[in-house]
Design brief:
It is found in: Cytoplasm. The chain has about 250 residues and is an alpha/beta fold. It has 2 domains: about 20-90, Winged helix-like DNA-binding domain superfamily/Winged helix DNA-binding domain (Arc Repressor Mutant, subunit A, Orthogonal Bundle), CATH 1.10.10; about 100-210, 3-Layer(aba) Sandwich (Rossmann fold). The chain is about 35% helix and about 20% strand. The protein contains 9 helices and 14 strands. The protein has helices at about 20-40, 50-55, 60-65, 80-90, 105-115, 115-120, 150-160, 170-180, 210-215, and strands at about 10-15, 20, 45, 75, 80, 100-105, 125-130, 140, 145, 160-165, 185-190, 200-205, 235, 250. The strands form 4 sheets. It has a 7-stranded mixed sheet with strand order 8-9-7-6-10-11-12, with helices on both faces. Helix 7 (about 150-160) packs across helix 8 (about 170-180). It is globular and about 60 Å long.
């Protein structure tokens, strides 16, 4: 399909009260996960400063993020932990169980299908598809692996809105097209490829290889082009930039 390239980090989420930056939505699950740990430890109330310490962000950031959705804390008393968990859970629509369609039943797909953590957080792998005849017919947690040509019809009949793509890069676009044709509106993509998606479809990408490749940059001194080191020039690595050299060092 001639879809334009469409990225989920396009900036905002439309809501009745205005526009919420997508980065705020991405932080909410981290907030609720931390709050659940606090609740499990028997903590009933927490200030924005205390919560910021647990999260590694500023208290102002937390207050700003939450202010998009209303007022949750009380001056001098902080946040009621359990109430805030309930509110963020409601905001993220996690007060229900979401059925998910998994496309791909290779080693990665099998690991995803067997992962029980999804159910604990409100997601159920309700349909599994694969192209390999050896995988079709296998059963995981009561779900039968179906041939991938059934993706569109099964997803539509089941009312599934979330899809996970765990297929090789050359098969990912077709999998996305089939999921979207069946009514999926949110995709978690493990395939190392940029998908072309129509407007209104949200996607998150998980690419461990790219993440590792971005980390190796910091493990060795970065080469400095000769043009930069022309007579009389110098380079500086400022504290915090950590451009492969010791912070604050310089070379002339």
């Amino acid at each position: 399909m001639p879809y334009p390239v469409f990225h989920t980090h396009r900036g905002v989420v439309s809501v009745r009260n205005g526009a919420i930056p997508d980065i705020v939505i991405r932080r909410l699950p981290i907030y609720v996960r931390t709050l659940r740990r606090l609740a499990a430890a028997g903590i009933d109330s927490v200030s924005s400063e205390e919560l910021a310490t647990h999260l590694g962000v500023t208290a102002a950031q937390i207050r700003r993020d939450l202010s998009f959705f209303g007022r949750f804390g009380k001056q001098g008393k902080g946040y009621d932990v359990r109430h805030l968990i309930e509110e963020i859970t409601r905001i993220l629509h996690l007060d229900r169980t979401w059925d998910v369609a998994l496309v791909g039943f290779g080693r990665l797909g099998q690991a995803i299908a067997h992962y029980r953590g999804f159910e604990e957080d409100g997601f159920r792998i309700a349909a599994i598809f694969d192209h390999n005849p050896d995988h079709i017919g296998q059963v995981v947690n009561g779900v039968v692996v179906l041939p991938d040509y059934q993706i569109e019809s099964v997803v539509r009949e089941s009312g599934i809105k979330i899809g996970i793509i765990a297929v090789p890069a050359d098969a990912a676009q077709q999998a996305a097209d089939q999921l979207i044709a069946g009514g999926v509106r949110a995709i978690l993509n493990y395939a190392p490829v940029i998908l072309r998606l129509p407007p209104g479809i949200w996607m998150r990408e998980i690419d461990p290889t790219s993440a590792l490749q971005s980390l190796t940059y910091y493990l060795e001194p970065a080469p400095i082009p000769d043009s930069v080191l022309s007579p009389g020039s110098f380079t500086t690595s400022w504290p915090g930039s950590n451009g492969g050299r010791t912070p604050g060092s310089f070379r002339a």
